[in-house]
């Protein structure tokens, strides 16, 4: 299945944002935007708001993102693919960030779904022998084919709303070579990543991320840094893959399965939603929750990762 290519920067529009800049700042924004718009017209690329295709126009933001990305990998780099400090960019777009990252001399690969943009990036990166461009959907790729070797990799991406969840799943499923991911998303998506149990933002995605990674917000990016201008703020954050402390791969998989089964009905009690989702009935689900020491009358969105682990271990006979 093909997804919209996340590009520095792509953003799914929606919600409300901050008021726009004024005076000299607006004039500078207009100049940068006109340059990006002209480049897109020359390539016959029409950004789709429905697909979240918004392109980064502010070079200051690009410099800040590059600084975060390059600071997150070892200083010593080799020129062989997959060596120390390799970088993978998902959806380079017009190359606002790709050229800066490739110029660092670190092994660099960019995956771009749009063939017109991929050709543009290939030309842009031609002077950098350490860089390569792969045409295709990132979800169809494997890290070892993009950057062969066993050295650490930093992933960089600007993720449209519609691809955020599968892209993050792809990142954490690539194994221990991915040391960090520097990601840009809608502010609302970033809030879901760090949401606490019982809040409206908390859900199965929050639990998945907590099971597999730690996150840290780096900085906010205003809508004026993109073309077309989105309706919401964006947030750059660092995602550091790691297994949830004290868990096995089997336990994490069990929690994912339980959460998916139970979070389809936010207004149902946990016994009812879990019983329905697992096809075991409310009575059996109630007994399972009681073995785990969880009140069956609670709702799924109030359970922490540790609570879900208790349910998983009870189901497996370990509690």
Main features:
alpha/beta; Rossmann fold; Helicase, Ruva Protein, domain 3; 7-stranded mixed sheet; two-stranded antiparallel ribbon; 9 strands; 38% helix
List the helices and strands and how they pair.
Layout: H1 23-42, E1 55-56, H2 59-71, E2 86-90, H3 98-102, E3 108-112, H4 115-124, E4 131-135, H5 143-146, E5 153-158, H6 164-172, E6 178-186, H7 187-193, H8 204-212, E7 213-221, E8 226-227, E9 234-241, H9 249-262, H10 270-278, H11 282-291, H12 305-315
Parallel strand pairs: 2-3, 2-5, 3-4, 5-6
Antiparallel strand pairs: 1-8, 6-9, 7-9
In short:
This protein has twelve helices and nine strands. It has 319 residues and is of the alpha/beta class.
**How many strands, what sense, and barrel or not for the largest sheet?**
7 strands, mixed
Counted by DSSP, the helix tally is: 12
The helical percent reads 25-40%
The helix/strand class is alpha/beta
> What is the radius of gyration computed over CA atoms, rounded to a whole number of angstroms?
21 Å
Please list the strands of the largest sheet in the order they lie side by side.
4-3-2-5-6-9-7
Mean pLDDT: 86
Q: How does CATH name the architecture of the largest domain?
A: 3-Layer(aba) Sandwich
Number of domains: 2
As a percent range, the share of strand residues is 15-25%
CATH topology description of the largest domain? Rossmann fold
By DSSP, the count of extended strands is 9
CATH class of the largest domain: Alpha Beta
